[in-house]
Amino acid sequence: MARRVTRPDHPPSPSGEAAHFRALENLYRSAPINGLFRSELVIPEEGRSVIHFDVDETQFHAAGAVHGTVYFKMLDDAAFYAANSLVSDRFLLTTSFNLLFTRPIGPGRIRAEGRWISGKRRVYVAEASLIDSEGEEVGRGTGTFMRSQFPLSSLPGYAN
């Protein structure tokens, strides 16, 4: 006799670690600054983040390449979210960030990859790389991040 199984109309909501990652992705999307950038954050696993974003001439400096503020924004965000993926109760704050520009960026699709390096109590260290559409690294950065007074659950956009 065959068993009949009815599938739910909606997939089950993520829980635990996966719910935290999806909530951080929602938090990223909800930040007003991200209305200025065509970008999408994905946290595939603890200690890692990936941001895909598009750049065009509106983000260029006078010499015809992407302005350094875009490098910083995407590298800082990728490193930040890699670190905050390890912290489920508090919003982290960037306390320092070192940036290396390795190549100019032209228009196109860019990927920022963040990786947690060390720290699991108060201060976290994470790095990030910018990869252009040809697979070349165009920038790199390392940041330190510390726990803030802000509970993640109190922030608009962080929805579990």
Question: What would your notes on this structure say?
Answer:
The chain has 160 residues and is of the alpha+beta class. Helix content is 20%, strand content 38%. It contains two helices and six strands; from the N terminus they run αββαββββ. The protein has helices at residues 16-30, 68-84, and strands spanning 38-42, 48-55, 90-101, 108-118, 123-131, 137-151. The protein has a six-stranded antiparallel β-sheet. A hairpin with a 4-residue loop joins β4 and β5 (123-131). It is globular, with a radius of gyration of 18 Å. It starts with 15 loop residues before the first helix and ends in a 9-residue tail after the last strand.
Task: Spell out the key features of this protein.
160 residues; alpha+beta; 6-stranded antiparallel sheet; 2 helices; 6 strands; globular
